Amino acid sequence: MTASRLFKHIAACQGDEPWGSLLDAGTGPQSLAWVSSLETERWTAVTAQPGLVDGAEAFLTRPQRKNDCIVIGNWADPNLLAGQQFDTVLLDYFIGAIDAFAPFGQEALVQRLARSSRANLYIVGLEPYVPLVAEDEAGLFIGDLGRLRDACMLLARNRPYREHPAAWVADQLRGYGLTTLSIERFPLRHRSKFINSQLQICADHVDRLEDQGLVSALNEKVAQMRDKGLELVERYDGLAFGSEYVIHAAPATLL
Length: 255
Description:
Elements: H1 2-14, E1 21-24, H2 29-35, E2 42-47, H3 51-54, E3 69-72, E4 86-92, H4 94-97, H5 106-114, E5 117-126, H6 137-155, H7 166-175, E6 178-190, H8 192-206, H9 212-236, E7 239-251
Parallel strand pairs: 1-2, 1-4, 2-3, 4-5
Antiparallel strand pairs: 5-7, 6-7
C-alpha cells in the first residue's frame, strides 16, 4: 500500500524520540490503524465524518486505551481542541481534504495545528497535478482523469480537494516559527485500482445530476476514460506520474 511507505518514512524520521501524545488531525482508516499501532502515551484522532467512529474498532491495530479518543468535529470550529498541545502532530492528506469542510481555510488551520505541536509535525500531501497539463501520455491521462473527477464533483455541488505543493507548505511553516527538517517525495505509479476509484467518484456524483442529457454524456465519457486508462495501465505497467510528499518540521525554538 502507498500509505505504508509514507508512515515508515515518518517512523524513520522520528527515530528513537518518544511519540508522546499524538494528534491525528484528519484521521481515516489508514492513519488510524497506524497511529493506534505506535507506542504513544495517548492519541487523539479527529474526523468530520461521524460514520468513521461507528466502525473504528475494525481499523484499530491495538485496542483503544482509556486516554485515547476519536473526536468528531470540524477544524473550522475555533473551539475544537482549543488550547491543547501534543508532542506529535500528523496531518495526513489534511491540507487538500480540509477544503471540503473549511473552504479556503488552509492557511489559518495549518498555522493553528503547527502551533499545537510541541516537538514534531508531520505533513503528508500530494503535489497538485489537476491544474497542470502534462506532455507525456501517462501524465496527460492522469491529469484529464483528475479534471473529469473534479468537474463531476462541482456539477453535483460538491467541493473537490485543493492540494498544495510541498514548497508552499514549507513557506507557511517558516512563517509560523517552525523549521522544516526534511521534505521527502515519493513518485507515484497509478494502476487499475486508482483508475477505477477515481471513475467511481465520477459516477457517484453524476448520479446526483438532474439533467439527463448531461448524465448520459458524462457516463459515456466515464466509460471511455475507463477503457483508455486500463489499456494504458497494461501497456506501460502502470502510469508513472506525480508524487506524494512527507514534510517533517519542528518548532525552531527546540533546535
